[in-house]
Every structure is written in structure tokens, then in C-alpha cells.
UniProtKB/TrEMBL annotation:
Family: Belongs to the universal stress protein A family.
UniProt keyword annotation of Cytoplasm present: yes
Keyword match Cytoplasm: yes
A Pfam family assignment: Usp
Keywords: Cytoplasm
Domain UspA: 1-147
Annotated protein name in UniProt: Universal stress protein
Subcellular location: Cytoplasm
Amino acid sequence: MYTRMVVAVDGSETSGKALDEAIKLAREMSSIILLLHVCEEMPIMWEPDGMNMILMQNSLKAVSDAGKELLEKHRRQLAAQGITVETKLVETYGGRIGSVIAEEAQKWNADLLVVGTHGRKGIAHLLMGSVAEGVTRSASMPVLLVRR
């Protein structure tokens, strides 16, 4: 029985499908859900001439604010269905989103981690990477991958 589930959400159709599956399980098992959103931030940007870096504070705030809005939207959705829900926003640098998701789930003592996956293969997978793959490699608890 899964009583503590973490669901990684990013606003995509795929993460929406993962959330739908987690909701079904939560209803059946009276589980608590932690909605987790990880913001991957790029604190600098190169100027066109390539010689100077520009801090992107306004962009960082916009990314964080959008994540907070997404979490609040989903929190209200789950609460309206009678599901106990918590939210957490994590900001990270350096493209380790999958391992950050797994680490946060472990800190929260999750017994299931639910993540959407696009199922990319070949060049698309090579170029874009896979958060879901990073999660499965790093997680210490069972992972439910939900395909689009």
C-alpha cells in the first residue's frame, strides 16, 4: 500500500497524466500526495558578443512564480477531491532535475514516486535527455512512469 506519494509536475500534458494516475491511487489507498515542481534555473546568459555574462534575476523570478502558480492550481484541484496534499517548489542549477526529484521524494519519506515520461528515443532522447530516466536511476523507492 502506498500512503505517501510524490508526483513531479511541470505543467505538461504528460505530467498531467501522471497526476491523474496518482489521484486514482490516492483515492483507493487514502494516500497523501506531495506535488513537487523543480525549477531548473540558468542564473546567467551570455551577451551576443559572447564576452560578458548577464544575470537574469527577472527570468528567475518568473520561472519560480510560474512554478508556484502551477503547484497552487493542482493543490486546489486535489483538495477539492478530498485528497490530502502538500506542495514543494525546488530551485536547482545544473540540469540534475531527475536526481533532485528522487532526493526530495526520499527526504519526504515517499513510498511511491510518480513521474510522466515522453518516451523519447534515439536522437530526441540524446538531445533532450530524460528527467524520468534520471529519476529511475536515482530513486530509492518504487517509481511509476506514466506515458503520454
